[in-house]
Amino acid sequence: MGNPHILVVPYPAQGHIIPLVEISLCLAKLGFKITFVNTEYNHDQVKRNLQGDVGVQINLVSVSDGMEPGESRNQPGKASGAILQVMPGKIEELIERINGSESEKITCILADQSIGWALEIAEKKGIQRAAFCPAAAALLVLGFSIPKLINDGIIDNNGTPTKEQTIKLSPTMPAMNTKHFVWACLGNTSAQKHIFQLMVRNNQSMKLTDWQLCNSTYDLEPAAFTLAPHIVPIGPLHASNQLENLAGNFLPEDSTCLTWLDQQPPESVVYIAFGSTTVLDQTQFKQLAHGLELLNRPFLWVVRPNITEGTNLKEFQDRVRDRGQIVDWAPQKKVLAHPSIACFITHCGWNSTIEGVNNGVPLLCWPYFADQFINQSYICDIWSIGLGFNRDQSGIITSSEIKNKIEQLLGNKNYKERALDLKEKITNSIKEEGTSHKNFNNFIEWLRT
User: Which of 23, 136, 288, 382 has the smallest number of Cβ neighbours within 10 A?
Assistant: First the structure.
């Protein structure tokens, strides 16, 4: 009998692909055969920016997402519609092609929990199945709570909040504003409809799975795991290969910033990065730039080519050249592990949140959409390792607010002390006697049976 052959299917977005590549590499190192499925568009992006021998350790393949090459994948409604309507058939064709060939047959499908239809396909074909949540367990708990939220009149049958209010799913869970529910803050009704439909369907699909894995730890989210004890934390995945090159990026990393960081004093640099999808309008972008200038402190700022439109950074760069470094994309794991980093201004994506926590770095929260608001509640209200920004009457985070919050965070050593304490707790979870380590080993044993 050959090695177990695992088909890994991520939701087609960078923040979902990266942690599933991480777990795939962990499995490949243990001798499992991995076939990793991206959409054609994402496959090209990932292959272009691969580092090391990732493409050798795991077999990267692609299927169509039903969208044209020039169409924007940043339109959640259209993209999620394609994911629901086109990808399931393409994945099923891929499975039939692999299992009908001379290669080792697929023995397990490991799917992103946000695409439960992949688990339905596995169940139909009699293949072992496991779901993986690259986000906080709290997001899963929110999804599982949809029927109760409807029954309690908090949302209607389409997921629309009946009124704006703040709720807690349990007394010790993070507070959630109904306008920030993951499906309700995407900017258009079409996106809301598709994402909500996907989450409702996933509640049924998840019943078909043998494992519901999560990139988290009991120490980070005890209340969520109490509400949903069937969710199995195996994180933080990033901690197990902290300084290895990250795979799954859509943009090439600029490692020259690490040399620049080497020249900065310890715990002096403000690091700013908003992930792969956050977009800032010109007014907000300029306020951020002005706030960093007012701060008069070294900073490293990741400015994606598509983060804003029509803004010329040359004059700003000339003024801050002695203390500021701007890159298109950074090797974030290595940046956050660098001793010169003082704090991290983040969009609060779960990957970035975990990476910050894993390095004991205090956080300043700038959530954009989806689960990022839940993560901000964890950072500010539950873990107390960071602060959020307040917006003015126009919805703008002003330069003075940015400067003041950075100074407030760095002027209070308690944030750093709590961040270091949390770092110790979650890194212990992946050590040999740690809970995440034991959970992952149990999963491995199941795969081999």
Answer: 382
